[in-house]
């Protein structure tokens, strides 16, 4: 279980303590976790994250920005029961289903075009696990596993994609990986994520699957 390894959201992250400094609630504790001091890590905003496309310290900057009154007014949100916004809550919820695989197979895939994507550097929800549950659906393959290329990518693949045929008219299930992206793909690879989603939404199914 890669979560137990302490990998977090990005396998190659050099800014991991930025998120840890904000984290007040760990809903999945394990005995081997090393507790780090809370608060902004020294120099966290002073060095680059060479593996990603964002600067260190963005979590703290985002929290400060979202606590500005003018930002909250523009977003039409208000704080209820607390003085400041933060990224972590004590939200209580109950699981209503052990698995949604049957729903995918019987209800979703026959009716819709679906894009399921994973960052291939995501230790939290590894892409190999996603590929495994997709394989368990035993869907017919419409376009086999192949690289996809965004504009301005220098000829390097941004990841890999495979398209499965749905049962309904125009329904497809596309599984795509994004190279060197962590759990929140648009955060780590924003331009590639934008191109992937834009192509999927704007193009006919066959062309959208190619991302070229």
UniProtKB/TrEMBL annotation:
Parts forming coiled coils: none
Region annotation Disordered: where it falls in the sequence: 28-51
Biological process according to GO: proteolysis
Stored Gene3D superfamilies: 3.40.50.12670
GO-annotated molecular function: serine-type carboxypeptidase activity
A Pfam family: Peptidase_S10
Endpoints of the signal sequence: none
Family designation: Belongs to the peptidase S10 family.
Matches recorded under PANTHER family: CARBOXYPEPTIDASE, SERINE PROTEASE FAMILY S10 SERINE CARBOXYPEPTIDASE
Protein name (Swiss-Prot/TrEMBL): Carboxypeptidase
Species of origin: Alexandrium catenella (Red tide dinoflagellate)
């Amino acid at each position: 279980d890669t979560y137990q390894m302490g990998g977090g959201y990005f396998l190659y992250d050099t800014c991991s303590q930025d998120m840890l400094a904000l984290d007040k609630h760990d809903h999945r504790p394990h005995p081997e976790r090393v507790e780090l001091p809370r608060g902004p890590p020294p120099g966290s905003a002073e060095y680059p994250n060479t593996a990603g496309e964002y600067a260190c310290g963005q979590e703290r900057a985002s929290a400060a920005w979202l606590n500005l009154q003018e930002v909250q007014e523009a977003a039409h949100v208000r704080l209820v029961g607390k003085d400041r916004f933060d990224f972590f809550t004590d939200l209580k919820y109950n699981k209503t289903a052990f698995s949604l695989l049957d729903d995918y197979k019987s209800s979703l895939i026959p009716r819709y075009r679906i894009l399921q994507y994973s960052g291939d550097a995501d230790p939290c929800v590894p892409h190999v696990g996603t590929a495994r549950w997709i394989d368990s659906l035993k869907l017919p393959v419409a376009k086999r596993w192949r690289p996809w290329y965004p504009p301005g990518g220098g000829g390097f693949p941004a990841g890999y994609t495979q398209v499965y045929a749905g049962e309904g008219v125009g329904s497809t299930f596309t599984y795509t990986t994004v190279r060197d992206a962590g759990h929140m793909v648009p955060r780590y690879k924003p331009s590639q994520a934008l191109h992937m989603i834009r192509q999927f939404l704007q193009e006919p199914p066959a062309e959208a699957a190619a991302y070229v």
